[in-house]
Request: fold
Amino acid sequence: MHAGSAIAHLGSSGIAVSFKYFSNLLTYHEVVALYSCIFTRKVNNIMSRASLICTLLASVFLGGCNSALVVTDNPIEEHKVDKIAALNTDLGIGYMREGKYQLAYKRLKKALEIQPNYSGALNAIGLLYERLGKYKLAESHLRRAVRSNSSDSAAFNNFGGFLCRQGRVEEALVNFKSALQNPLYQAPEVALTNAGLSLLHNDRPDEAEKFFRETLARNPRLPTALVAMTDISVTKSRDPAARGYLQRYLEMGKHTPRTLWLGVRIERELGDKNAASSYAMLLKANYPDAPETRELLASEAR
Reply:
């Protein structure tokens, strides 16, 4: 995780001065963790790239709407952010990633006490409320995040993901498209992919395909989009194309039950019995209880 904009202002002030500065704000363990990040180069400067991404669903290949958990994406707005609010927000995000929700809540609430309209903190605490099942609070904070900073594309993306998971697809698409309107958005492929997933999982593959194609035009190696295009191509009986997308995915990703079942279906249609059998054996051996395995067994029994 990255330690936030307060770290960016350490400059050459020296370890002793900086440690004293942080020791008044953080616990000992938090200070140690931050300095470990700095000196092992595991930190990304929020001022240069605010893009800490954390998938909220169990798997990007099984869910319908991803959410990128990030702080504000708008460099122009960064000078307005209180550095202590930003530091607490980044710590809160780090705790969320570790599943330490009580500590995350404490840090994010502190950030909002310091700067009530900081979109990064509103964004993060909204996603935390969603994880805790407090959907009304989640929506109100995510809505405040986009209203407080109309250039925070990450907040629009996360609000869109939340709305998608609530089954409000049209509202979700409006927010994904708002995220894409910012020319400074550093991860447009995230919003494009989420828009595509929203449509794909609501039986709108033709519309979804347009978003996935644009995603892959920007980032040809994005695994989620490659698997989605494999799925769409199989559905549309474009089996050679489906094989190509799956092979591209496998150059960087590992098999899941979904990709193995797609492989079986593709190779059956293309007449490669050996390849289809290989995919089937892997699916049965590695994922005996997966829904895809049940589909495979049912297809073999017919």
DSSP finds 16 helices and no strands in the chain. The two ends are 50 Å apart (CA to CA). The first helix runs from residue 5 to 8.
